[in-house]
Amino acid sequence: MVKCKICIEEKGESDDYHHLTFHLGKKHRIYTREYKEKFPDAHITSSSFRQKQRKLMLERRKNIPDLEERLHQWRNEKQESMDSEVEPTMDNIESLTERVQYYKLLLGSGVRGERYKRAYHEYMEAKTLLEHLIDLYIKQS
Question: pTM to 2 decimals?
Fold first, then answer.
């Protein structure tokens, strides 16, 4: 279990959490990135949560026989769509950053099933596009 260092600073104590992302957003109105900047050695998830997620991901991969092929196809499609992007602006980057943070919070909130799959897909798409836009923006500067 992990404890929130902000709560400890403010109240002297913290509840135990498996995953801090939702708590940080709801209680303190900050993203995990900001929390990690303030507390670089702090864990966001408990070791038992990380082990459980690893196990789930390995099981999911076993159940998708054509996973590598689908990932390769998805990357190619994303690359083609990103190559058509012209002149990224800070507004594009800020908008995508907010989208990425929203989906991270949603994924950490405990959603399951089809909603989780959609949120994860949207998160990965926004994250990939954000990285690409930042690279393009830096090259333009």
Answer: 0.43
